[in-house]
Every structure is written in C-alpha cells, then in structure tokens.
Amino acid sequence: MAKPAVPDYLARDSEFSDCPPGHRYTLYGAFWEPERDWKRVENVKPETLNGTFRKFPDSTVRLRDAVLDRQREHARQLGESVLTLDTESISPFVSGTGIEHPLENGMAFLNPYGLPYLPGSGIKGVLRKAAEELSKDVFGEGSQGWSRVAIDILFGKETDDRENEHTRGALSFWDVFPRCDSLAADIMNPHYGPYYQEGKTPADCYSPIPIFFLTVPAKTGFTFHVECDVSRLPADWPEGHWQTLLRAAFGHAFDWLGFGAKTAVGYGALRRSAKAAEPELAAVEEEIWENAGVSYNVSTREMIAETTSQRAVRCEAKALFDALGSKRRQDKAKAKELVARVRVRLQNGTAELLEILPA
C-alpha cells in the first residue's frame, strides 16, 4: 500500500485531507511503498489522483481567494502603472513538469501556500517571444508597434557573457494563480521507453507505458498583472503606449503560443474572459478634503492624505512632493506633520490623491 514518506507521527491522518494540493502532491504524497523498502509506486491510477485532488479543502480556497484579493488591491493602488487582464483557459493547463517527482511529471506549486501557479518569469518569457515574433511579422499580423528597441526597453537587454551591456526592462510580471477548486489527472502514453531509456532499437512493437500527471482543468480563470516602471520609458512615448504594446503581445500569445508547459501539444491555451471584454465603467468623482494629514515616504515615493475617516494614496508622487514648493512644507510632509487641503479622485471604492492645494 502506497504511503507518504513521512515520520509515523505525521501519518496519523494518512490522507492529509486538510492540506493544500501542493503539499499533497509533494511532501505528503502517497507515492511510496514501505513493503518494497520505500521504493516509489510503479503505477498510480488516474482514479486515485482524481479522488485525491477532486476538490480543494475550504481552507485552501479561502487562502487562494485571499492571495488573489491582495494582488488585485495592490494593482488597484498602483493605478495606471499596472496592466490587469482577466483570462480563461480553453484547454488544460500545466506548469513545472520538469520538476522532479515520483510520477515523473512534476507541477509548480508556490510554497508555503501549496497553490498551483504560473511563475512571473514564465509569463515574461512567453510575452517576450510574442513581442519578438510580432516585431518580425512572423504570421503576417503586422508588428503592431513592436520593434527591437521596444523589446529592449520593456523586457531588458541581455548580451553575451563576455559583454556587459545588460539593462533591466521596465516591466515586472506577477505570479498568476489559477482560480480552480480542483485538479485533474491527464495521461502521457510514451511508446518508445526501451529506446529512450535502455538504448534499444526504435520500433513500434514496444508496449506503451502510461504516465499520469496533474493539470488545471479547462475553463479556469487566470488574472495577469504586469507592472511598469514608467521612469524607465522614453520621454517621447505616448501615455499608455506600453499597455497598447503589451495587449498586442498578450493577444499574439493567446492565438499562437500558450502559457505553461506542453504548449506545443495544446496545453495552456488561454483567451480573454467574456466578462473582461466589456468592462463596466465606474463613476468617477473628485472631492476637496479640508485639513487632511499629508505624509510622504522618500524611499517608496508614496504620498498619503488622511482624514479621520478617509484615506487617499498616490504612488510615484515625487512630482507632488516637489510641487509643495517650500522646504518647510516638504519637511513637514516627510515628518507626517503637514496639514493641507487636498484634491482626490474617488473610483471603485478607492481614493487617489491628485493635488496638494496651496495653503
């Protein structure tokens, strides 16, 4: 009987039913046979995997929702410096198949949460590939604004090891967490095991050896967040140009590339979600707050205005800080002692600081 390779005092709950899926697939996975000197199990049936990962524990669902809510709130506070895209998978998704695992195919889970995820580094690689193909007009779609210079600006520039002309790109890609409540078993059916593993002559007479692995089911939601350091953009770029380029790259990736592993055989295909195609426009209002406490953080360049019941934030607020004029007002802002009239914008339940009005 297959068991997890853990000490006896941990194995009292042999199914680890309250654990996140990442822990149950790795540390606490029942993939070892003590009767065979703890060798890995030779054949895990898909029914076993589907039964184990059919439904996430409620604690895992709450944890995932909390992570997604924190990401969305942080993106909202950063405002126009973050591009957010809501998408939906139209095929199974898998990431991290090269990670070592007893079933031969691993899966990427973010520790300590144990949640399946698509690393931001992988997203950057796909979108850079999409931008390069668009710049060369590989599929006859036109460049849609992409060029070698734009790629270097947004994604960074790397040269040969013996050169030192490396530059950081303006974009940062956040990890993506699928909004799924379960995982599903899929199959890989290699026919040439003796040829690949034992050096025998390739032939069609070998028996297939099925290998099962986990995937995120189709019709799962994925939310992408891409942050841009606008200070690294050329001064002559129109406002929002980086977002236009990035949307074109995402569209190309959705049509031709896919995300995650095994994209060449159809996994990881995504599309813009229907609800995101026509976003609702929330009402925008502006207000003047009297006697608001104003503070400025020099290290993060964030300015905050607060009243007894309200709070407005402005990221990248160096220009607002400089506009205070006198050194006395600037010093008070840094010391969280400045009281002033401020103009704010209210939208989607959040307040953005627009201006510190003259005393």
From TrEMBL:
Coiled coil: none annotated. GO terms for biological process: defense response to virus. Residues 89-271 form the CRISPR type III-associated protein domain. InterPro entries: CRISPR-assoc_prot_TM1791 (IPR010172), RAMP_III_fam (IPR005537). Pfam families: RAMPs. Keywords: Antiviral defense. NCBIfam families: cas_TM1791_cmr6. This is CRISPR type III-associated protein domain-containing protein. It comes from Methylocaldum marinum.
